[in-house]
Amino acid sequence: MKVNLAAKLSTFTDTYHPRIVGAFNDHDIMVVKAEGPFVWHKHDETDDLFLVLQGRLTIQLRDQDIELGPGELFVVPRGVEHCPIAHEEAHVLLIEPRDTPNTGDPATAVSKPQI
Amino acid sequence: MKVNLAAKLSTFTDTYHPRIVGAFNDHDIMVVKAEGPFVWHKHDETDDLFLVLQGRLTIQLRDQDIELGPGELFVVPRGVEHCPIAHEEAHVLLIEPRDTPNTGDPATAVSKPQI
Question: Tell me, what's the ipTM?
């Protein structure tokens, strides 16, 4: 089944709550809406792929900011602290291994529904 | 380093010759231009992720055609025969494990330069 990313994104409004839209080699393919700051975190076991579909997203690293617009992607290497912040609403494609906690910490992570 | 996918795609014109633009969990992130038919093939060891960025791409399967436009993705499950065909030029994001032969067969695969 093909996935229309904009159609999936039109089904929800809450931010920093990823939805799973597909699977690939034991990874979840997700879409998320971002607005304002997320939290500083890292993933020790996985890289973290961000592809901006709409809007603008800044990936804050401890030593620089990565500014992403539509059609731009960035991979945060495993173990690297980062904090996404969107100064306007951004729609983002994420790919992470299945069951990766979005905050880097299972105690604070949100569940990620499949849509 | 962020990756602007359109900028990467503007640096070459040949079709069905993927360029590597990034890495993610032992996978290559690639962009490719497609026009006309590719070849029927399968990958026994990996799923195959296609995200159309521009144009239209049809993923022919043995029992159906998957028609993709911009912002639409499809994952061909491992072991499933498929043949992409683009009736107009399409620009596509691909993600596959490093060193996956694009034709499914190392004897006929193209090398994939990093750009």
Answer: 0.93
